[in-house]
Amino acid sequence: MAAPPEKTIRDLNGVWHMNTTLSDSTEQIFVIQGLSWLLRKAISLADVTLTISHYLDNTQTPHIDIQQTLTGGLKGSPENRVLDWQWRPHSDIIFGELRGKSRYLEPTSLCLEDPEEKFLREGWEEGEKVEVMESYVENEVGGWVARQMWGFEKVGEERRYTRHVVVKKMDGSELEKARLVYDWISQS
Prior knowledge:
InterPro entries: Pericyclase_pydY-like. By secondary structure, this protein is mainly β. The chain has helices spanning 27-32, 37-45, 115-121; strands at 14-18, 48-56, 62-70, 74-75, 79-82, 88-92, 96-105, 132-139, 144-155, 158-169, 175-186. A hairpin with a 2-residue loop joins strand 9 (144-155) and strand 10.
């Protein structure tokens, strides 16, 4: 289902379900991230639901806390992001030890000449001041970097919450990208 008009990148509160029909395949991204064939297959068969809590802390710093639920009610690792562009460690049951940082930005600040940034920049809603949320994550042991932009765009004729994802090896030898599309389920 399309995202309600009142939902913005500064209010993602609610329950969202990944639409695997409208989303790109993540198979090759998971290869770069070193996931086994069996784990990649299991993930590709699972339905993913995100319950998002989006709020400001007592210093007015934005937070996005996400609980992932997979088919059968299995809980994934929580994604807790503080949007202040400061490095934070994160331990993930699938991807291991990570460090990441997040922030809001205007996609027009990204370079159209760079193929990676062009993919991250294009497609978003148009308007006077469009913002996306940028997530940058590194896995030193696995030797990869994941960069994502989250926002809203038209998919078909419907406004959807989407993520543009680029994953690459730190040495630049491999790069894959995908767009993930989410259905709105309900307010949490």
